[in-house]
Structure formats: C-alpha cells, structure tokens
Amino acid sequence: MHSLTADHVDDHQLDANYNRLLYLLKGQILQLSDPTEVTICRNWIQRFNTARPEEKLDRNKLTSLLVEQLSDDNLSFPFIFMKKINQPLSSLVSEFKQSFTGTSLEADRPSQMEMTDILTNLNDLLSDAETLNLHVEGDLESIRSDRNESAHNQRLSKEIEQSTELLSQLRSQLEYYETLKVELQNLLTQKLPQLFEHPEIEISFNDLLKPADIDWIRSAVQTVRQEICSLRKSSSTVSLSECVGTQTAAEFDTSDMEAFFERKFARLYVREHARQMEQRSRDGLTQIELSRKFAKRFQLKK
User: Fold this and answer.
1) Residue 164 shares a structural domain with residue 266
2) Residue 53 carries which DSSP code?
3) N or C: which end of the chain has fewer CB within 10 A?
C-alpha cells in the first residue's frame, strides 16, 4: 500500500517509478467494463503526462493511489471529480491527506469538501432526472393523444362505412320499388284487360321481383280471375256486353278492374314498405349528416 508521504528522490527514479505504475495502470484499464471509468482514467493519465518537473513526486503518488483504487474496484476521490483535474497535483495530495487519516486506503470517511462535491453531483443528477421525467411524461401524453385520435378516427371510419352501407341499401330498395311500381302499372293497364277477355290465359311476372311479392300479386290476379268466371256463369244467357249496357266489354273490364284493385291494394303491405323505406331514408340521411360533421371535425384537428 502506498501512502502519500513526500520523500525526496531524483527525477530519473521518479520517471522510472511512474513508467512502472503507468504500465500497471494501463493493464487495469483494459480490464474495466465501465466506459465512464475508462474515460476518467485516460483523462487523468493525460494530466499526469503533462506534469511539471516539480509535480513529478505528487504525480507518482496520485498514480499509485489510482492503481490501488482500481485494484480494489473502488474508484473514488479525487479522480471521480473531473473538475479537479486542472488543479495543481500538490493541492490534490494535500486534500487527500486532509480528508483521510493513515494510509491511502485506511479510512472511508469523506471530507467536507468531498461531501459538498457529492451533494452537488447528486443535485445535478436529481435535476437531470426531473428533466428526463418531464420529457417522458410529455412523450407519454403525446402517445396517449395519438391513441385517442387513432381510436376516434377508427370510430369515424366505421360510422362512415355504416352510413355508406345503409345508403347503398336504400338505393337498392328504391330501385326495387321502382321495378315493382312499373310491374303493377303494366299489370293494371295491359295484362288485366287481357284477362277479362281471356280468363284462361297465364299472367307472367318480372323475374326481378321477390318471390313474396310475386305470390301476393298472383293471388290478387287469381281473385280477379275467379270474379270474372263467376260473372260469366251468372250471365250465361246474356252476353257480357249486354250486361253492361252501352259500354263495351273492354271498357267495363277496365273500370271494374281499377275499382277492384283500389280496394285490394289499400290493404297490401306495399304502403307499409313505403313507410319503412321513408323511415330508413331519414335514418340514412341522419347518419350521413353525422359522418360529415365527424369528417369536418377531423379535418379541423389536422
């Protein structure tokens, strides 16, 4: 163990001892795993290499102390305080002697100056930690905001998709009801007059109609067919044109047919479907308006 006592030796011996210590020190640095400690040691070696002739004795004492601290894996005062690297080496030796009693590794109690330096470093670390914590909180808040905005965008996209789907369904239903309307008009103006003239003919329907609609239309046509047959049986001795006076058979059939279907269609579910279609149209327009508001709000946020 080397103590920091001042013994007079010549420069040649001092340099020889320094080179020996420097060889040991470089071997220890190669075994260090902490990059910070490696940097500290290299900086102090540079300081020792530039020591003035009158500092050589103190240089060797401090180099010996650094070797001992690395051997004990206890890098400490004064080397961990880099602001002391520019102080005269003699003052560092004096500080160490004032801070520790006995040999260089005998005591572990730090001096008042070292405690001040330690507290200063701790305050700096605490300040850095608080600054880092603020940055982390800011980053977390940004992440939360991004997640909330992403969730809002997903909801908006889903609502727009639902509104688009509903609008497509409404268009499809409107197209179908237009087809049904044309088919009923064709039935009233063309097919039923033919049925009055020839009750035995078969009535065909548009293949685009739903099976349920074809069924109730066919049922209504069948009822008309039965009425026509019943009318013909009751007037077997009198011609159909005679039963209706001066009107022709075609005129009678058309007028009777229209009155009959007015009564029948009043009870059909087409009107109910029309009301449902109207309500769905209103719901669809409401959804579209909501989607536009959400889209405008999203654009404003951007």
Assistant:
1) yes
2) G
3) C
